[in-house]
């Protein structure tokens, strides 16, 4: 198990160097890698914002508002 985690860490450290080697082979490959990175980053930002909004909405609904619940509003 320890060998697997150290191998994973080593591959994560080597990953930027391998990406740089691939991107340095031709301008087309560099452009494709840049576009892929932008698409991935954009999707991460959009889905992260949606997730944060959902969590924030749930937290706001969980807070007491000072108003009586809807079923008690009619009786007042």
Brief rundown of the structure:
The protein is an all-alpha fold and 76 residues long. It is 82% helix and 0% strand.
* Mean residue pLDDT: 87
Order of helices and strands: HHH
Work out the helicity level: over 70%
Stretches where pLDDT is under 50 for at least 5 consecutive residues are none
Gap between N and C termini? 65 Å
Strand content: under 5%
Q: Quickly count the domains.
A: 1
Which of globular, elongated, flat, extended, rod-shaped describes the shape? elongated
**Tally of DSSP β-strands:** 0
- SS-derived structural category: mainly alpha
Please give the radius of gyration in angstroms.
Answer: 24 Å
The largest sheet, given as strand count, sense and whether it forms a barrel, is: none
Number of contiguous helices? 3
Topology:
Layout: H1 2-23, H2 27-62, H3 70-73
Q: Your description of this structure?
A:
- The chain is an all-alpha fold and 76 residues long.
- It has one domain.
- It is built from three helices and no strands.
- It has helices spanning 2-23, 27-62, 70-73.
- The longest helix has 36 residues, at 27-62.
- It is elongated and about 70 Å long.
- The mean pLDDT is 87.
Descriptive key words:
76 residues, mainly alpha, 82% helix
